[in-house]
Amino acid sequence: MNDQIWVATRKGVFEILRSKAGWRIAKVHFPAQNASMVLHDRRDGALYAALGHGHFGVKLHRSLDGGVKWEEIKAPAYPPKPEGEEWKTWGGKPVPYNLELVWELAAGGADEPGTVWCGTIPGGLFRTRDRGDSWDLIESLWNHPSRTKWFGGGAEFPGIHSVRVHPKDSRHVTVGISCAGIWITRDGGATWTNDGKGMRAEFVPPEHAYSMVVQDPHLLVQSPADPKVLWVQHHNGMFRSGDGGANWTEITDVKPSVFGFAVAAHPKERDTAWFVPAQKDEHRVPVSGQVVVTRTRDGGKSFETLRKGLPQEHAYDLVFRHGLDVDGSGNRLAFGSTTGSLWVSEDQGDSWQTVSEHLPPVYCVRFGKG
Amino acid sequence: MARVVFTSNLRQHVSCPEVSAPGGTVREVLDGVFASNERLRGYVLDDQGELRRHMNVFVDGAMAQDRRHLSDPVGPQSQVYVMQALSGG
């Protein structure tokens, strides 16, 4: 079980540790800086933090000693924009060749130490082979002809927020893009297919509803226990795939809501996953002011609503897409909210304890070392 | 040589002392500064080498106009200030 949690927030990266006295904030890294993403690479213990300085751009930092000392490393950079090129989104907005947000950092496979994937806005996927000393844009995806159909979801420009490396085949990577749907490579990024048959979008006219490239997966996760099983919390619903992402089944009639951003897959049980629901789209607050987590143990056929230890009146905590994580045992979960609450469960979500109600807005929660 | 001053708000992120640098344009002057302080470049210029959206450069009190090529002229006695734009919040 993991005794450490890294929390990236609007005002710093918080290191949470479990001691005999319980979970507590042990240290604030990058105090007051806007941290969009944090990664603890379980293969080598390296830490990565992405900071967005507004005026001064997006920067990446790395620590090789557990966060005692950080060094700024190269941030992924877009190549020079070709003369005369004008890539516009589906909505006609010219896409900048500039890093605007690091929206995902994901460790590569066990057989490729030092490889880390980075998803960004405005839609570029990057990869390092040397722990962030240098980055390469995956041009096969960036230059894909379909990109004239891409558009922003939650931002002005398209963004890559989910990168899942197949646990048994590092060249097989599944990516979620808002908004361009689900993308899969089986050759380490050389070629890509746009998958996601069965996904349905309510935010486009009916003739486009089942177009795979318009889908808005808020987050995509893969079952480590059975990598053919994928879960998506989508902009207008919840979806599950049992065949590696080719075909998807919509999960309906889940109380209190099928809307949300976050989802987590149990590391050992293929049919178990957790979601954090909210009142849909135009509201984006907990339904009835009650913070709950929903859990399925049967592949999405049924759900339990978990609320013990969570606020049940006048709570306005929204949980962003990277705000929920499960540890390597599957017993411990943690999630953080836009209003600065952080909760931990040690019994698969049956009950929750509050770590803090006063953090800055939480963007990313990830378990650290075991 | 022009005198180049960076907003003090940058100091928490990267070393940026006041320096003198040669050059006849904003681009030439800043390239001269970045040549010995490469990390600073990415805090002022974006991936395309253009002035970041929420940064401004003043040359002798006038705001530089060419944000893409940074071609505004700089004199040998000029004062160059690299500042945050209030548009960035």
What do you see in this structure?
- The complex is a heterodimer of chains A (370) and B (89).
- Chain A contains one helix and 28 strands.
- Chain A is mainly β.
- In chain A, the strands form seven sheets. In chain A, strands 3-2-1-28 form a four-stranded antiparallel beta sheet, with no helix packed on it. In chain A, strands 4-5-6-7 form a four-stranded antiparallel beta sheet, with no helix packed on it. In chain A, strands 8-9-10-11 form a four-stranded antiparallel beta sheet.
- In chain A, a hairpin with a 2-residue loop joins strand 17 (230-234) and strand 18.
- The relative contact order of chain A is 0.13.
- In chain B, 19% of the residues lie in helices and 24% in strands.
- Chain B contains two helices and five strands; from the N terminus they run ββααβββ.
- Chain B has helices at residues 26-35, 38-44, and strands spanning 2-6, 19-21, 55-59, 62-63, 79-84.
- In chain B, a hairpin with a 2-residue loop joins strand 3 (55-59) and strand 4 (62-63).
- In chain B, helix 1 (26-35) packs across helix 2.
- The longest helix of chain B has 10 residues, at 26-35.
Produce the secondary structure layout:
The complex is a heterodimer of chains A (370) and B (89).
Chain A: E1 4-9, E2 12-19, E3 22-29, E4 35-40, E5 47-52, E6 58-63, E7 71-73, E8 101-107, E9 116-121, E10 125-128, E11 136-137, H1 139-142, E12 159-165, E13 173-178, E14 181-185, E15 193-195, E16 217-222, E17 230-234, E18 237-241, E19 249-251, E20 260-265, E21 273-277, E22 293-296, E23 304-306, E24 324-326, E25 333-336, E26 342-345, E27 353-356, E28 362-367
Antiparallel strand pairs in A: 1-2, 1-28, 2-3, 4-5, 5-6, 6-7, 8-9, 9-10, 10-11, 12-13, 13-14, 14-15, 16-17, 17-18, 18-19, 20-21, 21-22, 22-23, 24-25, 25-26, 26-27
Chain B: E1 2-6, E2 19-21, H1 26-35, H2 38-44, E3 55-59, E4 62-63, E5 79-84
Parallel strand pairs in B: 1-5
Antiparallel strand pairs in B: 1-2, 3-4, 3-5
Helix pairs in contact in B: 1-2
